[in-house]
Design goal:
- The two termini are about 45 Å apart.
- Among the domains are: about 100 residues; about 120 residues, Methylamine Dehydrogenase, Chain H.
- The strands form eight sheets. It has a four-stranded antiparallel β-sheet with strand order 1-32-31-30, with no helix packed on it.
- With about 525 residues, it is mainly beta.
Length: about 525
Amino acid sequence: MDSFTRWSNNQYTVEELCLYLHERDICSLCCVSKGWRKALNLNPVWLRIVISRGFRNSPLVSRVPESPEPGFESLEPSCYWARVLQYTVKLRYRWRNGTGVKTSLSIPECIKSSRIACFDADPDFLALGTESGCLLVYNTKTKQLQYINTVKQTKIEKLYVRHSKIVAVQFGLIQVYNISSELSLIFCKTMESNSIRSAYGVDHSLPIDPFNVPKLTLQQMQSRHGSYEDVDISKLDLTVSTVGEQRLGLVKSGETSFYIYSMESGEYQSKVGFEEDEQILKIGLVHVQGFESLLYAVVEDLDHNISGIMYDVEKKYRIWKIYLHTVFNYQFSVFSIFTQRGLLLFGRNHSDSYPYTWTWRSWSYQGISEYNYEFETEYDMYLADCLKDTVVTPRAMTYLYPGNSTLVFSHRTHRGIVTLAYSWPADSQKLWRISSKSEMSTFRSDTNVPLCGSDIAGLVFIGQGSSRLEFRDLKTGKMVKQIELDGTFTNVWSDDWRIVAINKDLRSDHPITIISFE
């Protein structure tokens, strides 16, 4: 047995060798001979590269089948994590060099008179809610469009697409639908008044579940509800899990307890109570794999001080509490978002004056401070469109893209609207800055530039005018290409496979356009 055969059959030796090689060298060695390819065809070798690129917990991993497709008979099939890496490389190439496959959704005539109020998407479905209470669901695999009227013939305030289910919120009524061959109502929860709840047949002698609604069909719910007074949605907050166990969390703002339910059945699972002086304002289940049992809550004490609490709903204990009022000025908006690295928050500095001082802070899900950066601006900043008529989505903020190692956002200056990119969390510095063209006034003179991005593609997509998107490199800001859409858009969103451009006016030409690069 020659020396190459002897050590190449030793998995430990091969893994140790690869620790000292750049990923480009490992890929090159695979092309040298069948022997090298076989020696390096190890999941730990390629998993390390996938992790270094930040894709380990990405939803794209589930798109790669466990069993390899038939290939060259003379070559051993690539291991799973090598195929994951190959998939990401091909996807990145299509983003940067292809034009994508455009699909324009055909809107039924009976719905065109309404406007889009909210939307959400996952890798397989795009859901849209209208101001008249219609729910549209588009299957990106089968290209099938379904639509139904929800319980109320009023505006759908929020939508969540999770676990092949849809959560629709209409003021105080939460509805959960199953996405199958036909949309069907699974269960409802409500925080409406007792007079409305009695129409559902609610038994008030069961206080364990204050949001309880008996399981009725959609037709029964529609007939019983009638034209009752709506409930202000600001009095309610909810959160839906994205990975792991299917959970729905509900809370009445200002109370000290929140409730967890099964999304599959609507059954009550647990009630979590905080201290008497910790009134809950917001809750959010972490959607990052490995931390899916954690729930983040924003609370206010009797002195109106704001804090953040991270709680484990499975192990039922508090992990950490951070006194946010010592960091941010809560007289103004403070934005928070879950990232692969931890919880990222942005807002005005607690001791702020003009020019405005903005603070970025990030904590790991274990409560360790990871990122702290400040900068000054001439104008107030918003990372989300907070106007009353905006189209709402829980997936992203309109003016921020938080990549694995790059933050890109837009804001106003005296000279117009600019888009900025900063590296994070280590060695934070400004990477690039571009000015927007005057045609951005087609959106609104007082707003920012809508943008989104993809870490797989290494690109950020910036709205220019009302029908064109710029593709720019995340690290350099260099223009890669432009895409002109068939219609105009008011909102744009993306994941690692596609871009969704939406015009909330359904009577417009091509109101919903999907550009797929998979």
